[in-house]
Amino acid sequence: MSAVRLSLRVAGYRMRMTISTLKTEDAGPKTVSRSVQVSAPVATLFDLIADPHRHPEIDGSGTVRDIDVSGPHRLSPGDKFTVGMTQYGVPYKITSKATKVEENRVVEWEHPLGHRWRWELAEVGPGATKVTETFDYSTAKLPIVIELLGMQKKNADGIESTLLALANRYDVH
């Protein structure tokens, strides 16, 4: 995983930004997983991801709406939370259950149809974190429906947009 740092001058102002490189991760069958390096401490990123009220801030898929989020501000295993969503232009709410939360390492939740979303964090240097987001439908009640709807590709695109936006959130100077 690498990053390209650009520096340019526009109208007398010097601007720097990082173009982060996504990496495809092998998380097993029926998973879509990508990672990126983010210039932020693990704890900062964990605080963001473990708070479902902040999920609209980091969603790159365009499906999480910034309305009516309910549940705790810090997830623990077994916690339920509800977020407003939109899919194919149709708004709805979904209640998910946190299945695994390890401080500064993992946040995972399960959708009512059984598939899971997992975020993994690993410190790779001072103030630098490898962030991996995984869509795991190996536990889905109807994995064939996910495949027929092409959700692997749609979710891969959303994960990539989310991770790049997250990296740029902390890398733009």
From TrEMBL:
It holds the Pfam family Polyketide_cyc2. InterPro entries: Polyketide_cyclase/dehydratase (IPR019587), START-like_dom_sf (IPR023393). Coiled coil: none annotated. Transmembrane segments: none annotated. This is Polyketide cyclase / dehydrase and lipid transport. It comes from Mycolicibacterium gilvum (strain DSM 45189 / LMG 24558 / Spyr1).
